[in-house]
Amino acid sequence: MITIFWILLSIVIYAYIAYPILLIVLCYFPGLFKKNNENSSAENPEVTLFIAAYNEIDFIDKKVSNSLSLNYPKEKVHQVWITDGSTDGTKKHLEKYNFIKVYHQEARNGKTGAINRGMKFVDTPIVIFSDANTELNKESINEIVKLFKDPTVGCVAGEKRIQLKGKDNAVNSGEGFYWKYESIIKKKESELNSVIGAAGELFAIRTNLFEEIKNDTILDDFIISMQIAQKGYKIKYAPNAYATERASLNIKEELKRKVRIAYGGIQSIPRLKKSLNPFINPVLSFQYFSHKLLRWTLVPFAFFSLFFVNFSILFLNNNSYIYKLAFLLQVIFYLFVLFGYLFQSKSMKLKILFSPYYVFIMNLSQIIGIIRFSKKKQSVNWEKSKRDF
Partner of 189 at 20 to 30 A CA spacing, among 33, 109, 115, 150? Predict the structure, then answer.
């Protein structure tokens, strides 16, 4: 039982604490993994803002206005919107903007189907993917393009930011802190070698590197970006290019979103098996295993089992202070989880109090996602989460 305890604890600590620390340490040796590459001479290339929109009529005007406000030569920014299956007038509303290319078909084949179809209409060297309900900062395109001047870079991941209020509830606070934590990891991964996947709110690729993905793919952004990494190109992180959106409306909506992501994570493992081959790209496989694979597979089970194993050790009269302290810390953690559950709809200034509850929900959703994947119960057509606007 003691051996099991230490194995479980090691898995959790490595995934959440040791791996980020290890990244920071490795980044102190800049010449160990990275190679210096001369920048290309191309400046301000033409780019395409690509938005797959399903029933997003409420966000169109705000999104278009935001796109026009970006600090990049207007004549070099093209917009492609794919509105497949939309029934709320999204297509018709977009047609009033004569500088936007709108492609529509009645059939709804999910976001993946829309991307596969829509990429055939992109003719610029760089395509920037974004969601209809997110706002980009003014320098986002400049920050992205700057990284593409390195010919070894095939994808650039922007930063996702959650717009927090002065007082926020459990979902807003937890998701906001989680993305700040993730941003630190992404920044260090980029410095070391390559970010492990991009978020669909904002990422860009070299158009000629795009490879169609299976129409049942759930995590299209992750698969598209990692396929490029498998080809030997880098995914770089641009923290000064960011997309801002509100958190999910409530914990039910966030759980729905997380379960879908969990399903997609498990689905992607066999589809990205080259990324786990240390003989092809040892640094990428180390990063992928540490950042994603562990969290998607072993960590959730280790996370919940640890409490019961720890309790069993104490029940068997092992009075070591180490196990007493470990159990006490877990009891405190779960008390905070209970606090988060009871006050999830309340707004508070001390946002960090909700973080344990969000971590709990994140691991719970992963287990639910694994179960759902085993039963193959997940539609590729995403029912978008309600956001707190």
Answer: 115
- Are 205 and 154 spatial neighbours (Cβ–Cβ below 8 Å)? yes
Position 190 in a domain: yes
CA 11 from chain centre, in angstroms, equals 21
Q: Which is nearest to 348 in space by CA: 170, 192, 175? A: 170
Q: What is the pLDDT of residues 241-263, one digit of tens each?
A: 999 887 666 677 778 888 999 99
Number of domains the chain contains = 1
Phi, psi of 164 (to 5 degrees): -95, 150
pLDDT digits (tens, 9 = 90+) for 124-136: 999 999 999 999 9
CB-CB neighbours of 308 under 10 Å: 10
* Residue 164, domain CATH: 3.90.550.10
Residue 155 lies inside a defined structural domain of this protein:
yes
Alpha helices in 218-297 (DSSP H): 220-230, 251-271, 282-288, 294-296
Establish if 339 belongs to a structural domain. Answer: no
Q: Kindly report the length of the chain.
A: 389
Beta bridge partners, 159, equal 242
Which residues touch 204 (CB under 8 Å, ≥6 apart)?
47, 126, 127, 128, 129, 144, 148, 155, 156, 158
Q: Kindly state the average pLDDT of the residues 77-91.
A: 93
Residue burial 2-17, b: 16+ Cβ < 10 Å; e: rest? eeebeebeebbebbbe
Using left for φ > 0, alpha for ψ between -120 and 50, and beta otherwise, residue 51 falls in beta
Does the pLDDT value for residue 232 go beyond 70? yes
The range of the structural domain enclosing residue 46 comes to: 30-257
Confidence of residue 386 (pLDDT cuts 50, 70, 90): low
Q: How many CA atoms lie within 13 A of 266 on its CB side?
A: 22
